[in-house]
What we know:
The longest helix has 19 residues, at 161-179. The protein has one domain (4-248): Alpha/Beta hydrolase fold, catalytic domain (Rossmann fold, 3-Layer(aba) Sandwich), CATH 3.40.50.1820. The protein has a seven-stranded mixed beta sheet with strand order 1-3-2-4-5-6-7. It has helices at residues 4-10, 38-44, 70-81, 96-111, 140-150, 155-158, 161-179, 206-210, 231-234, 236-248, and strands at 11-13, 22-27, 48-53, 89-94, 119-122, 193-198, 220-225. The chain is of the alpha/beta class. It starts with a helix and ends in an 11-residue tail after the last helix. The protein has ten helices and seven strands. Helix 8 (206-210) links the parallel strand 6 (193-198) and strand 7. Mean pLDDT is 87; it is low at 251-257.
Amino acid sequence: MLTPMQQxxxxxxxxxxGNARTRLVCFPHAGGSASYFFRLSAxxxxxxxxxxIQYPGRQDRSREPFVETxxxxxxxxxxxLHPGIDGPVAFFGHSMGAVLAxxxxxxxxxxxxxxxxxxxxxxxxxxxxLGGEVIRLRDDADVxxxxxxxxxxxxxxxxxxxxxxxxxxAFRNDVRALEQYRRGVEVRISAPIVVMTAVDDPxxxxxxxxxxxxxxxxxxxxxxFDGGHFYLERHADRVITVIADALRGHSEVAVDPQR
Length: 259
């Protein structure tokens, strides 16, 4: 059992939403951190209590060792998150975060008999969509090239050796974890899955992303964008609207995309 302080290391909430009926838990991308979802939290608070997961080995947890597998990371996130869930909860994961949102949802359903209202799978091929997954990261130059390809990282950071020393290890660890992860279509959840993907994402095709629907018995929807792997930065307002519309079926949600 984790202490409240240990739980706060994992789960970050940026805005006061104490009266919100629904909690949205966000899972960052490979190499990412909880702060990536600050704008989403600002837009949806106080109607939705938006929290984000902070993985070990980055930002204020930089002194902690990385978690090397998706399975172990999902186990540890579940252990930190479960004690604080006392009402409707939905999960949003982008890229690697989509895989973790799915795996944590599985644990909630199987271990706690709690069915998330919605799982948002963003910018990630389904676990069963195989082919072209291995990313060869022989050296730091390969890592930087991959990060440039995906976007989402300030180019100034990628040209700063000191900053690169801080972010490259996390990205490399997360990519290795993803390379080891596989699930067949028989592995499913009952929560609906809302797929969000870009038509020009270099990391997944629309068909590979839509295969997420094979991993649920609860139905769902698909929303496509342009803008590459980090389409949600170009289309922040629409992303917020898609999330709010999906959650609205479970509680009244009003958002201000300009906040």
